[in-house]
Amino acid sequence: MEMKKLKVATARMAGYTGVLGPVRFTDGVSDEYLPRHIRDRMAASMEFLEVDAQGNEQPAGAQHRLITESAERAPQLAPLTRQTDAEKAAEIAAAAVIAAKVPVLETRASLEEIAQKSGIKGLREIGKKWAVKHRSIPTLIEMILDAQEKAVAARAKTEAPAVVEPVVETPVVDEKADDSSIVPAVEAEAERLAAANAAEAEAFRQEQDAIKAAAATGDLAAAISTENPQE
Q1: 18, 37, 78, 132: most buried by Cβ count inside 10 Å?
Q2: What CA–CA distance (Å, rounded) separates 52 from 96?
Q3: How far apart are CA 29 and CA 52, in angstroms?
Q4: Cβ–Cβ < 8 Å for 21, 38
Q5: Among residues 21, 14, 18, 17, which one has the least CA distance to residue 39?
């Protein structure tokens, strides 16, 4: 631990000679080099400067030391720059690939370029992503392209919205209401019943008139004989 002297920084006590706490001062400077914990404790009660062996001065106290050390240790951050449109598009594309969990699709040209640079070994690394392998470069390229095409088709099929067939309701047809052939028969039966009722009512009226006429003459036998015999 580096030892330093303390120098009184308070203007009204500048050049002080005497004892402050456990430390003796002469002309405002401690007679001895002091450890850090004593310097910090003294600086907590009044203002001091720390003086090293080379005569360099700095404010004493834990608070000043922490500020200085944090400034020295803090990383120097580069100034922020605005993201370009190309960088933004690349970031969105990369996020989409990661979210989809699908390997990056290669074109025939890119596969041929990989084959020229890395040979069959480079193509086999691509083939592992699609679970295909072969010893021939042209065949392996075709297998990778075919696997990519199938994966894209399968994914498009699963993501396509389901087509809901419209439900066509068959109207309930009231056959009795729509069957016009029944109407004439119903009307004819109604007319027959009405005529029968009218004839029966007329016969009953005539019978009652005859009974009344016979009763008026006092001929009870004639009145009784006017009733129609029961069939």
Answers
A1: 132
A2: 60
A3: 12
A4: no
A5: 21
Degrees to nearest 5, angle at CA 43 with 41 and 49: 135
Give the integer Cα–Cα distance in Å for 184 and 180.
Answer: 8
Q: Which long-range contacts (CB under 8 A, 24 or more apart) does 140-144 make?
A: 141/108, 141/111, 141/112, 141/115, 144/106, 144/111
Task: Beginning with the edge strand found earlier in the chain, give each strand of the sheet holding 48-51 in spatial order.
Answer: 18-20, 23-26, 29-30, 5-8, 48-51, 57-59
Both structure tokens of 150: 């199938």
Q: Can you give the pTM of this predicted structure? A: 0.31
Q: Do 62 and 38 form a contact (C-beta atoms < 8 A)? A: no
Strands 48-51, 5-8: pairing kind: antiparallel
With H, G, I as helix, E, B as strand and everything else as coil, classify residue 128: helix
Residue with tokens 């003459």: 217
pLDDT in tens, 62-104: 888 888 777 666 666 667 788 888 888 878 876 766 666 666 7
Beta bridge partners of 37: none
d(CA 72, CA 210): 142
Nearest to 28 by CA among 44, 61, 5, 45: 5
User: How far, in Å, are 12, 45, 125, 150, 212 from residue 143 at the CA level?
Assistant: 90, 81, 13, 11, 118
